[in-house]
Fold this sequence. Notes:
Helices cover 24% and strands 14% of the residues. It is α+β, with helices and mostly antiparallel strands. The strands form five sheets. A four-stranded antiparallel β-sheet has the order 2-5-13-8. Strands 11-10-9-12 form a four-stranded mixed β-sheet. Strands 1-14 form a two-stranded parallel sheet. α2 packs across α5 (183-190). The protein starts with a helix and ends with a strand. Pfam families: FGE-sulfatase (PF03781).
Amino acid sequence: MKRIFLLLLSASVASVSCSGGGSSSVGKPGTKGELIPREKTKSFVAQRPYGMVAIPGGSFIAGMADESFTNNGETAPLKTVTVAPFFMDEAETTNAEYRVFINYVRDSIARTMLAEAAGEGGDGGGKGASIGDYAYLAKKEENLTPYQEYLEGAGGRDDGFDASKKLDWKIPLHWNTSKYPDVEYAEVLESMYLPASSRVGSERLIDVSKLKYGYRWGDMDVAIADNERGVNFLRSESISIYPDTTVWVNDFHFTYNEPLFEQYFWHKAYKDYPVVGVTWDQARAYCDFRTKLKSDYNESLKRKQQRPLRFRLPNEMEWEYAARGGKQNATYPWGGPYLMDDRGCYLANFKPKRGSYMEDEKKGTYTYAAPVKKFKKNTFGLFDMAGNVSEWTDSGYNNSAYGFSSTLNPSIKSKADNKKSVRGGSWKDVGYMLMTGARDWENKDSARSYIGFRTVQDIPEAAVKAKRVNR
Length: 471
């Protein structure tokens, strides 16, 4: 009897220690000796970001299929290429959207300076009644988690984020001088403005030279050369992000554009107009901010969400593929070879005639840029892929790019070359530049009154049909 009891006991122990069907992670991996991943098998659904449309993957003939009137080096030979699916902004980035970026950076800088001045904090009621309310969150928290204690002792995370200097965004900022809570607060906030000696009249203006956005990005060329993704793979940048409003005067000589210089970016009348005066680097910084915005929101949820795919600029082939709207021989984004519809209305905002920058009364008389979504969208649901403002792409510019680039997701990236491809034509261009195959370029550190941008986000090939995010 004793022998039978011992055998039964050993068998029961073995069944407990080797079982993989329970929720415990103790013991060897697998289930019943089989290698079976324990990850949930639920299908991944790509959530469509607000204001974007899904561009299905496919193949198309890239290049100028129509006759080239200029016969220059920008005309590339025809080439069949394949592009993977992605999300794309349905319209160009607007002044209102870019101002969200500006205000975030402005508030971050102000909160950081207030937190430094607040020191250990104080009793302000937690509603911004004194500068003490703006202290770092770590100064207010009494019970730190073991992880927070570890980071504090280790000097912060390796990625540069310092948990001890996390800002408290729940405390409201007061920009109205009549609502400054105390003298210390006033001293910090006033340092954000131009000094009185630099002002025009009595208007208080933010010193935009202080609005810099810092972020990190990975340099794939270095990662490939070093065959690793170590510290040398990372690049840190601090970008001045305020648009260059002087472009309205610099781009055009002997022209009265002062009202646009003074009003185009900040006046509410232009909130739905495409942002211009941004460099290629500023457009990339905006993409990183948009990724951070979504990532921070996901982190704030009780039920953690998967890290969002990053927003970025489209490469040149993605842009051309999206502009064609799924039509192989699309001279223009709307498909046809004409610049007018059957009612005689122009289909884009461009320069229709010599000396005439206005389209027609039926579709709107826009001297310069027009509000986004005023002209007909293409079959992919994208507005202003021709005209209004030209758009930055992520690709470096090369006359022979179509000849040596890959046919699978082709992308030309030459960081040593300052030239970047610009596509779509603008309000100041003639109809030829609006063709889907027409190419142009600009130096990446240049800002123009006729160049804006839109962003894209990758869609994993394994994702099921994308769904629209709720507003």
